[in-house]
Design brief:
- About 75% of the residues lie in helices and about 0% in strands.
- It has one domain.
- By secondary structure, the chain is an all-alpha fold.
- The N and C termini lie far apart (about 40 Å).
């Protein structure tokens, strides 16, 4: 394993969630995706604040329910933004994880984006603050 891979694993920490009786996708999700998302939560919140700002702060005028839908739509339908988010996650993969990811990228992308949507929804109050900065 390379120094880069060892450094990434050290910074990321261990698995989040049960991996004992898991499918390959669940194992990848809990060993790789969840620790990355946890580590990068502040970056994802900052990224979405920037997204809000670039879209003229219309998000700030919405009700909470509509904000939650806005988050889903932004990640599911804005392909450029979605790809940027995937890049923020994939940059934390080890080489072995990247090889595993490429074998089933479609399903793993769905898992990544669904988890990321939940993180942003759980942090919706943070998205209302300091968006004008």
């Amino acid at each position: 394993m390379s120094d880069r891979d060892n450094g990434i694993l050290l910074l990321r920490g261990g698995s989040l969630g049960d991996i004992s009786n898991s499918s390959e996708e669940e194992r990848f999700q809990n060993q790789t995706i969840r620790p990355i998302l946890q580590l990068q939560t502040d970056l994802f919140v900052a990224s979405f604040k920037n997204y809000i700002k670039k879209h003229k702060n219309e998000f700030l005028l919405l009700t909470v329910e509509k904000k939650l839908l806005y988050i889903e739509n932004a990640i599911q339908k804005d392909i450029k933004y979605r790809n940027a988010l995937k890049g923020m996650i994939m940059g934390w993969f080890t080489l072995e994880e990247f090889e595993n990811y490429t074998q089933n990228s479609s399903n793993l992308n769905k898992r990544m984006m669904n988890l990321l949507i939940e993180i942003l929804k759980n942090n919706v109050q943070l998205l209302d603050t300091d968006s004008n900065q």
